[in-house]
């Protein structure tokens, strides 16, 4: 196990390039973390974007040189690069905005209608595999959640589902993007994006204390299994939709190298852990650490 010390890592998405590990070691970007928030690496590992001083700054991950600055991006709650590394989406209050990485030009914006007395906080954004659509998860303080699929060309919302959500909402896409996993509070639901309701819902509990788990992040492994991050443990859900606990007692952060490594975050020590997967399926299994 390799441990890398970093100042702030919550919300970080790990790409596939070898430069990412070197970047974490060098910490070349900035020492100013007082106003820093969400961050993400591009899928090819060549760029890193981070909320800083009320905007979004994009750096070259190898040289640390600033590539662009999105000065109109305020209150960034989530960030994601497109699969071709050309666009970046950010979730904010009541909106999702999509930017051109090199020019910093705003390319598209999706507005969320305000719930009564509250605002939607966009917790999670993803591009569809063809880079033609956006998938968004949002939550408001009246304990409502929503997930929608939007068209990048027209700015229209194509599909949407709303539901009760006591905690912020996060989402993960299965291959083919016909089905999404949606987490809110201690529950995970599955949504066929053409359907009006969830097809199945399960509750995730900490088996050591039988308490409800606050789910922070989801990701679909290349083999189709769902990885679930709570505050202090990583879970796996297969096709049977039954959560199984691993022995990794950190927050899940991302998958690298086609699923061969798992990146986790230790909230107590503020450390990233690069965990080598050793099972035949290439995924973290209970007891492997």
How would you describe what is shown here?
The chain is mostly beta strands and 289 residues long. It has a single domain, classed as 7 Propeller (Methylamine Dehydrogenase, Chain H), CATH 2.130.10. It is built from 1 helix and 26 strands. The strands form 7 sheets. It has a 4-stranded antiparallel sheet with strand order 1-26-25-24, with no helix packed on it. Strand 16 (187-192) and strand 17 form a beta hairpin. The protein is globular, with a radius of gyration of 18 Å.
CATH architecture: 7 Propeller
Low-confidence stretches: 1-36, 284-289
* Discrete helix count: 1
What is the terminal-to-terminal distance?
Answer: 9 Å
The CATH class = Mainly Beta
The overall average pLDDT, rounded, is: 75
The fraction of residues in strands falls at over 45%
CATH-defined fold name: Methylamine Dehydrogenase, Chain H
Number of domains: 1
Give the class from helix and strand content and strand pairing.
mainly beta
Largest sheet: 4 strands, antiparallel
In the CATH hierarchy, what is the superfamily? YVTN repeat-like/Quinoprotein amine dehydrogenase
Quaternary organisation of the protein chains: single chain
Rg calculated over all Cα atoms: 18 Å
Number of strands: 26
The sequence of SSEs as H and E is: EHEEEEEEEEEEEEEEEEEEEEEEEEE
Strand order across the largest sheet:
1-26-25-24
């Amino acid at each position: 196990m390799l441990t890398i010390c970093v100042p702030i890592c919550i919300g970080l998405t790990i790409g596939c390039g070898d430069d990412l590990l070197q970047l974490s070691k060098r910490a070349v970007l900035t020492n100013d973390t007082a106003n820093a928030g969400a961050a993400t690496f591009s899928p090819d590992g060549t760029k890193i974007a981070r909320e800083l001083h009320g905007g979004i700054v994009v750096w070259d991950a190898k040289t640390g040189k600033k590539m662009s600055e999105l000065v109109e991006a305020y209150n960034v709650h989530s960030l994601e690069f497109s699969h071709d590394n050309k666009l970046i989406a950010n979730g904010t209050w009541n909106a999702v905005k999509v930017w051109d990485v090199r020019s910093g030009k705003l390319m598209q914006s999706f507005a969320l209608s305000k719930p009564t007395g509250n605002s939607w906080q966009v917790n999670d954004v993803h591009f569809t595999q063809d880079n033609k659509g956006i998938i968004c998860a949002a939550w408001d303080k009246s304990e409502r959640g929503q997930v929608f699929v939007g068209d990048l060309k027209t700015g229209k919302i194509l599909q949407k589902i709303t539901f009760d959500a006591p905690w912020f909402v996060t989402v993960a896409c299965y291959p083919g993007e016909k089905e999404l996993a949606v987490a809110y509070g201690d529950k995970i639901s599955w949504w066929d994006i053409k359907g009006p309701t969830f097809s199945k819902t399960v509750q995730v509990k900490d088996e050591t204390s039988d308490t409800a788990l606050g789910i922070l992040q989801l990701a679909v492994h290349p083999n189709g299994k769902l990885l679930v991050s709570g505050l202090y443990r990583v879970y796996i859900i297969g096709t049977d939709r039954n959560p199984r606990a691993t022995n990794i007692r950190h927050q899940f952060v991302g998958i690298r190298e086609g699923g061969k490594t798992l990146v986790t975050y230790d909230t107590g020590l503020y450390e990233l852990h690069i965990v080598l997967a050793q099972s035949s399926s290439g995924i973290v299994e209970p007891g492997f650490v």
